[in-house]
Amino acid sequence: MGARVVVLDYGFGNVRSAVRALERVGADVTLTADRTTAQEADGLVVPGVGAFAACMAGLKAVRGHEVVGRRLAGNRPVLGICVGMQVMFDAGVEHGERAEGIGEWPGVVERLEAPVVPHMGWSPVEAPEGSTLFEGIADERFYFVHSYAVQTFTKGYDENAVGIFSPPKVTWAEHGGRFVAAVEDGPLAATQFHPEKSGDAGSQLLQNWVRTLA
Q1: 21-61, pLDDT tens digit by residue?
Q2: What residues make up the catalytic site (predicted)?
Q3: Binning pLDDT at 50, 70 and 90, where does residue 154 land?
């Protein structure tokens, strides 16, 4: 049997295609908002589409933010996708309104500064050395659909900090300017693009993540 993965069903996300994509790479997938099932799975996927504030409200309604926090405290893997990545940051600002995120990473999700928004389509990424998610696919393109993103990432770059944890591995992409395309930070990983819509490269990324759950 493959790794047990829960796709969190909280009303915001391309859930069916995420389930199918994970099943194709060998995961045993359950679509549910049940906290116990989500807590006990080998891996938890938090999808998300639409507005940041609405996604956070949906997450809180099923206490998904608590599940994420407990899983990460226990070093249990979580993968955020699209707005499911954005909510892992401190806050999102849309139409002048600020909504608080889960706050696992410092940073604010803001509107892309580009001639054409949303950023929609296939784009290359700039993956760091030693990336697990992008092993074998660092030169591929991935499918993005978004108007907002985190454009600076500061966690883990304090030269004076003392700790046992390595800094997060941050992958970047460009649309108007640089923005965070993916982050790998211990048990928490996330992508701004949609791996479930990114063809063979997206399948390989999901397979790379599922492999870490064994």
Answers
A1: 999 999 999 999 999 999 999 999 999 999 999 999 999 99
A2: 82 (nucleophile), 194, 196
A3: confident
What positions carry a catalytic annotation?
82, 194, 196
Buried b (16+ CB within 10 A) or exposed e, 27-53: bebeebbeeeebeebbbbbbbbbebbb
Asked if 78 and 119 count as a contact pair (C-beta separation under 8 A), the reply is no
Q: Hey, how many other C-beta atoms are within 10 angstroms of the C-beta on 67?
A: 25
Q: Which residues pair with 92 in a beta bridge?
A: 99, 109
Quick check: 195 and 182 in contact, CB under 8 A?
no
**Complete DSSP assignment for 58-126:** HHHHTTHHHHHHHHHHTT--EEEETHHHHTTEEEEEETTEEEE---SEEEEEEE--SSSSSEEEEEE-B
